[in-house]
Amino acid sequence: MQCIEMTRCIGEYFELRSTQLWSYGHCKLCGHLDSLQLHVVRKIRVWTSSDEDSNFKLCRETLFNKLPLKESQIHTIREGLDAPHAADDYQATLKQVFGVGNAIPSFDVVLLGMGPDGHTASLFPGHDLLQVDDQVLVGSITDSPKPPAGRITLTLPVLTHAKNVLFVCTGSGKAPVLKTVFQALKHPNTIEGDVVPAARVVPAGDGKLTWFVDKEAAAHWHEEL
Asked: pTM of this prediction?
């Protein structure tokens, strides 16, 4: 499935749920952009914003610059800090923006991907970050199994408190692990969550979990549904 088709599906999903959101895929805006708060924290890598591998640079060029947003509505990591200090600084930003004190913030929407190894955000299989308590909202990693070594990431307590979690998963290389994820979601006690971190991102309470996959990634999913 082409990226524009995937984003169109996501936009239509939210429109059907009467949720205030924009759909970048088909250039339709709904809701109130003046109250939108965007947090660029998915799979954050500790680059400068001008680096070609910067997630923030990609987001700015392909999305933010196309919307009438104020800089105060966009929250990304501070440049010039190493991963541990960047994580501490961003956790303070989250608490200030959400005004939650020591509580866990609840995002309206979290958009995630998944790697062929089952990692999501920068939560990798078997890593200590999968075991943090709910006081750690933003974690740092300095030994990432894929470059760059230094990253910061939202932790599981934050991801699982979101009102809506959306996963986008494409390509045949994701098919084996996607089958494992569906198996874990259907039979939670059959697979150790540290092996497939993406399977642990299940919103609590009334939160909604939605997976958008193309037919290549879903090649084996009928075996688990």
From this structure: 0.79
Task: Please report where in the chains the tokens 């933010």 appear, as a residue.
Answer: 64
In whole angstroms, what is the distance from residue 92 CA to residue 96 CA?
6
**CA atoms within 13 Å, Cβ hemisphere of 135:** 0
* Strand 110-112 with 74-75, pairing: unpaired
Q: Nearest Cα to 160, choosing from 129, 198, 191, 190?
A: 198
Give per-residue pLDDT as tens, 63-103. 777 777 788 888 888 878 888 999 999 999 989 988 888 89
Using an 8 Å Cβ cutoff, are 118 and 198 in contact?
yes
Residue 202 is predicted with a pLDDT of 93
Rounded CA-CA distance 207/224 in Å is 22
SS3 11: helix
Task: Count Cα atoms within 13 angstroms, Cβ side, for 131.
Answer: 7
